[in-house]
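the two lines:
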Amino acid sequence: MAMAAEKESTGEVDLESALLPSSSVESLPLLAHSTRSRQHSHLRSLRRSASNTTSQIAIVGSDPCPIESLDYELIENEEFLQQDWRSRGRAHILRYVVLKWTLCFLLGALAGAAGFLTNLAIENIAGVKFVVTSNMMLADRHLWAFGVFAASNFVLTMFAAVITAFFAPAAAGSGIPEVKAYLNGVDAPEIFSPRTLAVKVVGCIAAVSSSLHVGKAGPLVHTGACIASILGQGGSRKYRLTCKWLRYFKNDRDRRDLVTCGSAAGVAAAFRAPVGGVLFALEAVSSWWRSALLWRAFFTTAVVAVVLRALIDICHRGKCGLFGKGGLIMFDVTSDTIAYHLPDLPPVIILGIGGGILGSFYNFFLEKVLRAYNLINEKGYGYKLLLAATISICTSCCIFGLPWLASCSPCPTGISEACPSIGSYGIAAPSGLFIPVILTGATYGRLVGMLMGSRSTLDHSLFAVLGSASLLGGSMRMTVSVCVILLELTNNLLLLPLVMLVLLISKTVADALNANIYDILVKLKGFPYLETHAEPYMRQLTVSDVVTGPLLMFNGIEKVGNIVHVLKTTGHHGFPVVDEPPFSDSSVLYGLILRAHLLILLKKRVFLPSRSLFGIDVSKQFSADDFAKRGSGKHDDIEDIKLTAEDMEMFIDLHPFTNTSPYTVVETMSLAKALILFREVGLRHLLVVPKSSSRAPVVGILTRHDFMPEHVLGLHPSLLKSRWKRLRFGKTSLNKVFCDLC
Amino acid sequence: MAMAAEKESTGEVDLESALLPSSSVESLPLLAHSTRSRQHSHLRSLRRSASNTTSQIAIVGSDPCPIESLDYELIENEEFLQQDWRSRGRAHILRYVVLKWTLCFLLGALAGAAGFLTNLAIENIAGVKFVVTSNMMLADRHLWAFGVFAASNFVLTMFAAVITAFFAPAAAGSGIPEVKAYLNGVDAPEIFSPRTLAVKVVGCIAAVSSSLHVGKAGPLVHTGACIASILGQGGSRKYRLTCKWLRYFKNDRDRRDLVTCGSAAGVAAAFRAPVGGVLFALEAVSSWWRSALLWRAFFTTAVVAVVLRALIDICHRGKCGLFGKGGLIMFDVTSDTIAYHLPDLPPVIILGIGGGILGSFYNFFLEKVLRAYNLINEKGYGYKLLLAATISICTSCCIFGLPWLASCSPCPTGISEACPSIGSYGIAAPSGLFIPVILTGATYGRLVGMLMGSRSTLDHSLFAVLGSASLLGGSMRMTVSVCVILLELTNNLLLLPLVMLVLLISKTVADALNANIYDILVKLKGFPYLETHAEPYMRQLTVSDVVTGPLLMFNGIEKVGNIVHVLKTTGHHGFPVVDEPPFSDSSVLYGLILRAHLLILLKKRVFLPSRSLFGIDVSKQFSADDFAKRGSGKHDDIEDIKLTAEDMEMFIDLHPFTNTSPYTVVETMSLAKALILFREVGLRHLLVVPKSSSRAPVVGILTRHDFMPEHVLGLHPSLLKSRWKRLRFGKTSLNKVFCDLC
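prediction for all of em together
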């Protein structure tokens, strides 16, 4: 095992440690390393303020949990190449293709069914509640009516909160930030587990039925992603529901594709908008997209549409209780003939500007409220439930009480603004953002329409649609997908030009004020989201400026004790493997080995008695399944592997299990350029090699965290004081435009 | 200058040339190199059959012309970093952002206007022709009518053919293959020049007016791309229409974004389908896509929609001659209430299957016809014009004659199938494919509907829409974009489920038979199109297996004579720069220098008298504009640079102009994995470095051509005989499914 120092930001090299032949370090006790690195980091701290300020913990739902990066790199080692089914001819490829489309079909069918069941349950529960309350009101028993209304809401909310808090905290909230982070390459345990799926569906039904101002679109996206992930990993190992055939999909790339299709299916199920679902997945949640994926996502959402239509057809025969009397969101503008002229444009433009301002204000306020809720939630289960209970009672009071304040005119539709949608989110229950925004926006639009009065010839229902569009544009900042979803909801294409205009205006206005709602949530939850574009200051830094040491490496044939020690004392997930003389003519970077693969080697005890190249043939002891990527959030732990003192003195030949062609960049490359490679190819580890061949063959490893602005600015606080700070962290309105639109 | 041998496919290294210190080769006459390389390649030919079978020539329009790769890499050299406006603060960034959106606005406005003018001119010319002919027919002067009809068609066709053949051969054909190839990173001269733009618009008007069965969608996409490219390069230097401010856009990345928006604007203008335009650009033409681009393309197409609406509104006041009496394609199903039930599905499924088969047959037949036309076109201008004339007369005869054969029933709409749309394409005139496919598909659908008779309750107009969808799905293989374009054309969202079903079926059926029409055209034209997915055999090859030598390198300070000789004798566009002792402690890869930059250095004569590091400060002699990428297809030529014998003995310090951080891969990486990097990051050159540091610091350069199946299989003909051949080159139907859908 060897240690090489990283290059300093000034470009000077710590020659002492870099020139130290790495093989000679091997015999040093490991404690010495850490002492050395401590001295080293002390030296470094003269120039840098902190070693790593980015956390490996993110808030999933309402609880903090450890996170991990995903790896989309092709791992090329001897073992994998031998086992790889892609090189095994037609039968495997055929099976893979058939399975892939079957999975998409199943995914569409299940997501459609889940969407339908959610809707059915919500409408029946909310419907019964409504009927009972209304009957009591008609009998003039207002206090009783309020009591029943508030009590049922309270019970439903508490039920949702309790199952979420105690059984699956990862199911709390909208779920879209988690899905978005996953598709960006950040994995958190339990976000796609069967338990989360179950709680998500049941909790969403309870939360929406309880008259909270929350939606089901987000939860359905999360549900779709859960179904996709569970299908892809071939069921759950925990519940002994696995399928051998699905081993083709046990890697992050195929899983990413499935989860993308799953999120498209979720939106399609929530709005009955198959095209809108595909575009939503493309525009709002996915970080990587290919043409082939468009086609597959389209297939999935088409299945969703067919399943939904079939199930609704069955329901229309009257076997589904109160279903179908409310239905999905319906803007009643289908029958109207839309005609608009130049004089109609000013109100529409005003509506768009207002929607943009309101949308960004909504985002701003939501962030503040969620921060406050997080403080409360951190105090424990009791406080979580108390928060949920308080919100439920407040909401009941608002909904029941506010109509009394207004006269019986069409005006009261305006009140759901006065009872802000914002206040009802952030509690530990599955709840979506999309539909509240649509409803609030529709109310806002209708209000504007009424204020316009006779000055505009446009229909009020049209104003409602445009209001929704403006608030969606201002809050979620989606364009094409919102356009298509609204068209699919309203079933009227003549609206298109006006919807586009409103969206363009509101998005532009809101982008000048703050970030979109999902980016705010992803950031608030602490996911290390990798942006496509580089920050301007990243062009001024080289990769060696951000690499933090000490770098831990293994020899091609490494002592078991060293491996165990390194795995126990560090949290790194990848280690360079370096061959030293006499095993090679000079110090050569053999490749990169993953922690997960090392753990498998230790578990299987493929040990050699001595440091020799010609050991036993280890490849026959493994099948491809051994190295298949485990399900989301699951991995082995070094603490679970028990080895004897004798084992510790033995050796492992790492060569057959090392990825021999990791992607590398030269240490003088700018951080911005390295980010392009890291982001576009979807890497987990990126090796940094020295410019000169006379030094150690690798000088550092870049991971996702090294590209995070917090980390980079933590290492180089001087950048914060420079002009780049003003560009990125300033409060002026144009900054966001720069970063978003460049 | 030095030469290093590439590694052989067996993994052995030609030690003699690899270990030869590169500095010592410098004094060898260059002739010796080629002798050596000839010997070397003779040795190599024992294992490999050919050195490079991919052509650097492609057929643009109907003429062959040289092509070049585009480069999306960030070039990091001292000169560029100093000049780069991104590091120059807010004013530049603000100007960039404002300009970018202004360009999109102008692009939308101009593309909208071009679409409108094209439509206006076509309808007036065709309308006058129709009125005159009809009047003669009504007066029973049938022969005269035919004479006028055929003569006007002949004149129009010949006019289109003459201007295309003599003034802008690049304007021939649909133009979408050229745009698709450009967006994949292949540039051909003149494809986006002002002359091509002018001929494209005028020629398209003449060709469509001449009753040829051709469309305007493809030409409008090309027109949009032309406008985008010309706007982005700040006008044309040739016509002295340039703008200094636009230097921010003088690089391939920004130009790619603009051209993508331009192609979206073209489709939006052709069909008045703004959302469909964006999706068409995403699905059918672009190779790289980002979320930010979606938003920008959407803005552009929104402008197109507004401009079109405004212009049409003006026309409706009756100042545009015959315009508006025909209008854009209109499926008259808006007013119908669409109702369909389970029994309606079988005919729809049959329609889809039939459409898939017909679509793939259309593609197959089109390819054959175009191959035949190419043979004719190659013989010279006379043959080109003769071909156009023949087709014009045949088409006139068909259109005029065939209705006489049928009785006066609705049936004759079926005849445009008998007069195949295919026969009228491929002549040297701007002509699109999209609308012929829509029309033929509509005819096919109506025919199926009539054959169904009373067995189906669906409307015949609905069958026409579904027929169009099935043929589009079968021929172009687009899904989401065709869906949305058809919805925007028919203005009826209730069709969506049926359209989706038909598209899914026809695309699946057709994919099993052959490739999509644009891929066939791109291949036929010889563009080296870089696919997203790797072929299965690419996993079996390492990058060193496909690198063809000899590799030409430069020293950090290189003799002018050597540079000139290399530039004159090779066509390479990038050369590694290697520092040798005593300028560095060992042989070090300093970076990569581009041919274009070398030419600028030679032109400016920034020469040093001797080989010393501390020469004159060269950086002040250059501005960022000098290194800006020239317009599409334009570049300096080494033959234009006159240097004296004295100059030839001097030196150039290449260091400040060398890209110091080119992307590199290790020689043992599989070709499939290198392709991922090459394709995702959008590279032009990818350096291959050796595994061991004891050898020359670079062993080869990969370019686009090295990833082309023809090149790889030319080098390794044994792969053709292996099972991979069957997978890729076999005739069985599943192969295409594997490659397309994996």
